[in-house]
Amino acid sequence: xxxxxxxxxxxxxxxxxxxxxxxxxxxxxxxxxxxxxxxxxxxxxxxxxxxxxxxxxxxxxxxxxxxxxxxxxxxxxxxxxxxxxxxxxxxxxxxxxxxxxxxxxxxxxxxxxxxxxxxxxxxxxxxxxxxxxxxxxxxxxxxxxxxxxxxxxxxxxxxxxxxxxxxxxxxxxxxxxxxxxxxxxxxxxxxxxxx
Length: 195
Hints:
Layout: E1 4-12, E2 24-33, E3 36-44, E4 53-56, E5 60-61, E6 73-74, E7 77-80, E8 85-90, E9 93-103, E10 106-111, E11 116-122, E12 127-130, E13 133-138, E14 143-149, E15 156-158, E16 163-164, E17 173-179, E18 185-193
Parallel strand pairs: 1-18
Antiparallel strand pairs: 2-3, 3-17, 4-7, 4-13, 5-6, 7-8, 8-9, 9-10, 10-11, 11-12, 12-13, 14-15, 14-18, 16-17
């Protein structure tokens, strides 16, 4: 008997940031083939650009010995932390300073002992322009747990997903893959929690 996917239930965990009270999700694709289940889950969360961490689109040469044939590339990172303090990671050093959001899409940041930088967020492109570089939100991959049931009452843990996508942009789906033995019809519960 081929495995049948009867119902797919999503249970959203707490602490997913920005608009937690209105969390929802939708499975946009499911494939069951050769003992493996592949799902694509889209999370619908309100996005607050002021609470996100950012990573530069542009990459830079990493700090590596000159004899290394293909040295690793690195990106700049930008974090607007609590208490009005920001951290700006560039190559192998960090600059710290104060920041203030001046309107819906603008931030001013003053480095300690340095100049003022104005950053502007573009909500259409989902990009923060800061010191001449484009930065995109860096979003953590949520923790995924999968459970299975034959009766919707008794649930057993499946030994975690075999694979969860490592790339995650705002609005994109998260790909989840796990092994599935032929047990007839089953229900699956997916728990999505921020790490």
